Amino acid sequence: MAHAFASLETAGPVAVWVIVLSFIFVECAFIFGLFLPGDSLLFAAGVVLATHNSELSAWLLSLAALIVAVVGNQVGYFIGRGTGTRVLARKGGKVLNRQNLKRAGDFLDRRGFWAVVLARWIPWIRTLAPMIAGAARMDLRRFTLATTIGAIAWVPTLVLAGYYGAGVLQTFPWLETAAIVVSVAFFLGGTGWGIWRYRQEMAKPIDETSEDLEHVSHPQAR
């Protein structure tokens, strides 16, 4: 475990970029992303980049990850538009169940445009919102604007908070190391838990009694 932490701590900016952009795209585009720790990943990326004094890389990564998050949500939108949401619900699912899908649908129905913006900060809704918006035939231009605003508020905030937060700790080497270890451990643990949880959820049969959320077409969401 110590060797793994050391490898990640000394990982170059290129490795950080590859990991972050890959995970953010998956989290924003596909249902598997529902179980990935996107928030902690962005923060941890900033912390690791701070150890290399890569300020420019942190800003550029913020921009690149922002774009990837928007593109990922576009993919999720068209997946929802093409397949609907009924097939997502699983019998006995802890996360993918009728109740959670309905809650996410109701959230989008009530808030419309701003639901997509705010969804960036709500882990499981972050992945479901684009699919539900697509199934509900939310106007694509409004959806794109909303998801872009959300990404602007989400991605740079976490990456730069990690970067500059770690920079403040550089005067306390032991505390900086502790911050890196905790960030990386949280990311690794969250990813491992997410993979296990995804396998558990998808092993359950589709809930045939679940209704598609295409009815979520309140004028506010159009």
From TrEMBL:
List all membrane-crossing ranges: 12-36, 56-80, 143-166, 178-196
Q: Which UniProt keywords apply?
A: Cell membrane, Membrane, Transmembrane, Transmembrane helix
Record's keyword annotation contains Zinc: no
Carries keyword Signal? no
Every VTT domain range: 36-163
Q: Where in the cell is it found?
A: Cell membrane
Membrane topology value: Multi-pass membrane protein
Which Pfam families does this entry report, sorted A to Z?
Answer: VTT_dom (PF09335)
User: Which protein family is it in?
Assistant: Belongs to the DedA family.
Q: Which PANTHER family match?
A: INNER MEMBRANE PROTEIN DEDA-RELATED (PTHR30353), TRANSMEMBRANE PROTEIN (PTHR30353:SF0)
Protein name per its UniProtKB record: DedA family protein
List the source organism. Lentzea sokolovensis
User: What is the organism lineage in this UniProt record?
Assistant: Bacteria, Bacillati, Actinomycetota, Actinomycetes, Pseudonocardiales
